[in-house]
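Field log, afternoon session.

UNIT: design team B
ACTIVITY: writing a sequence onto a fixed backbone
BACKBONE:
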């Protein structure tokens, strides 16, 4: 194992993981902004945000490829399979100073990813609740799926109330 080569690759990996951490922080910010714009119903800003997220996909893909390339180089340098090359496995083959740097980055990424999962779940819940409310509103406005409520008048005659839709769909 060439120690200089491994140290160079570890430095490259740490730099790549730092970029990953910034991307996760940016994603957290975008999720917060997305929820805010949905609540405010700012369609123009929401469209711009979604376009910006779409534009960043290529950058995320190249970042992923860089990380996998570094991971493969480390696996080759340490003589193991790429699937076995995890941060924990890497730490076992490093001196204490580098081991601590990798451990700090691992802890940082773990906490950021946990926060991202929580924020993502909150965003999914908000959007699914918006969808549910929209469906309820549409059903009540257009009286969709209803068979009509049965009402009794003072004489005991039944009457279905089907003509109470906000918008009448009959031609």
């Amino acid at each position: 194992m060439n120690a200089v080569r491994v140290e160079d690759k570890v430095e490259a990996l740490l730099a790549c993981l730092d970029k990953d951490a910034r991307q996760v922080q940016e994603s957290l910010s975008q999720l917060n902004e997305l929820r805010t714009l949905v609540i405010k119903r700012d369609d123009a800003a929401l469209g711009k945000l979604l376009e910006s997220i779409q534009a960043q996909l290529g950058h995320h893909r190249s970042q992923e490829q860089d990380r996998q390339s570094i991971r493969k180089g480390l696996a080759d340098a340490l003589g193991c399979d790429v699937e076995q090359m995890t941060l924990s496995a890497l730490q076992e083959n490093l001196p204490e100073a580098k081991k601590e740097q990798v451990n700090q980055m691992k802890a940082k990424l773990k906490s950021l990813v946990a926060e991202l999962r929580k924020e993502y779940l909150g965003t999914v819940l908000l959007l699914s609740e918006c969808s549910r409310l929209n469906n309820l509103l549409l059903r009540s406005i257009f009286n969709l799926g209803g068979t009509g409520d049965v009402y009794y008048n003072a004489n005991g005659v039944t009457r279905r109330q089907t003509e109470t839709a906000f918008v009448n769909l009959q031609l």
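LOG NOTE: Helices lie at 3-40, 43-55, 57-78, 87-92, 96-142.
NEXT ACTIVITY: expression trials, pending approval
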